[in-house]
User: Fold this.
Amino acid sequence: MGPLTVYEIISANTNLVFAFIIGIGFGFVLENSGFSSSRKLAGMFYGYDTTVLKVFFTAAITAMVGTLIFALFGWLDLSVIYINPTYLWSAILGGAVMGAGFILGGFCPGTAFCALSIGKLDALAFIGGLFIGVFLFAEAYPVFEGIYKAEFMGAPFVYDALGMSRGVFAALLIIAAFGMFWLGEWSERKFPRDEY
Amino acid sequence: MNMRLKLAAVFIPLGLFIAAVPETKTKAVKSSPDKILTEVRSNSHLITTDVVADMLVQKDPSLVLIDVRSADEFDAYHIPGSINIPIDNILADEWAGYFDQSAKMNVLYSNGNSKATEAWMLLRQKGYKSNYVMQGGMNYWAETIMNPEKPASTSPDDEIARYNFRKAAGGVLGGGAIAPAETQAAAPAPAAVPSRPKKKRAAGGC
Assistant:
């Protein structure tokens, strides 16, 4: 857990216990929202169920508003927050592969384990495929290494690239997110499916 | 429908608020006064003139000597190899390259201790750590390195070794009779090199 382990307030083992408890909470929430059903997850791409969109964007804008308001009050120093480095080609390629896998399989890795824990066999098949993919990538790594590390861009920000300030971009993103929520509702009415 | 409207009513005003308030550009202060006080009391920011002389003689590349006195005093006399950053300018952007790094050791000196320590305090509060103060400043430098006091021949060996080192270093670094400048406190007069008849050292020991 963030600053607690770095400053040795809790030991690494206590950190694992916290991770276990948080994992239980995460799995509970996923299952409660119905994300163990592969048809509900794949519905995002066919239009009849946009729960995934709403959950992800609500989480994103909550986190964004939280960090920005904390930074405004000086409770959070944004310059020390770790940002995943951007490797452009591998991000695009990996995203495309992940999207194809999501539509085909109806799961992403986290929800697959959540579904497996309630005994779904399609989740078991998905996880089998997951391990095969990981094994293939590791064995064939020399082939992928070039594109894996290509076009390292550091940690660029969208608002810098667009030339606007951080706050303005945040407000625009919130408005875009709510626009998408209404779009999702329209899509659910347009592409209904009785049973899934 | 209801839930979406409620969420929108919360988030969109928050978003507009974030867009309207300008972001703070200043970095948070990196060191607390307590930490700085501990460092000052433990004298870990001080470097003796002997260490500086040694580093200069060895041409140690990690040393950067910075004279924080005014430009006139710098022109009158400065330690060879030092650069002049007057304390009034010390927070300017053009000098940030010297201070905002941790590879080289910056040794600040002034005539005595006070200006150099002020400069050190300012830089420490900005979070820069690789800065030190030459203990005693130019006055002590003149006393010890430029005009070292010859110890009595009955002094312990390490004192005599130190005197020899200082004399050699002083010679290399342009020593001789250099009078120290006036500081706010009364500066002690430079010790005149005493002329003593050479006593025969008691032979013996190990």
